[in-house]
Fold this protein.
Amino acid sequence: MSSATTTRGWDEFMEGIWKQNPVFVMVLGMCPTLAVTVSAINAISMGIATTFVLIASCGLVSLMRRIVPKEVRIATYIVIIATFVTAVDYFIQAISLALYDALGAFIQLIVVNCIILGRAEAHASKTPPLPAMVNAAGMGAGFTIGLLALGVVREILGNGTLFGLSLFGAGFQPWVIMVLPPGGFFVLGTWLLFFAWRARRKQSAEVTQHA
């Protein structure tokens, strides 16, 4: 594999983590982002489930891109995505009923997650399978990082734990608001503010260098 091919593959993967992060840049998939991030384990579980559906569905969409009529492509994409979501739904239910109950209907709602349908339409339908799956993996990783960034903060401040392990002892007074819906909006807004500040700072540095 040439260095140019490796570089392109790396760029495809990193696109979803940084340049087009679904949560912090494109602000997509906000329903699961706000609803399931009351704990880090919920966040990472939803991220992994979404990443699997992204990779699998984008790979199959790419393989079928030349045989699916344009008139029914969206319906076909939804059927493909729903198939993999159903597999994930049964898998999570089989391995942990507690996790399944915690994620609730948001497992099934992966079907209508605009990140997945958007990748299928905008990228996988126009790209060979391997680049499509690499790009999907990057988007999934970026989404998982976004969920985890919220889940870690909300669990630490809301429960005094991380992945269920106590951090501060019995004397800690939890911020109950962090495990409620307003806490999700507050943490998300804080992260968005941080990334906006970082982007503006980078832009200012580039302007200074070219001045």
User: Anything to note?
Assistant: The beta strands are 161-162, 165-166.
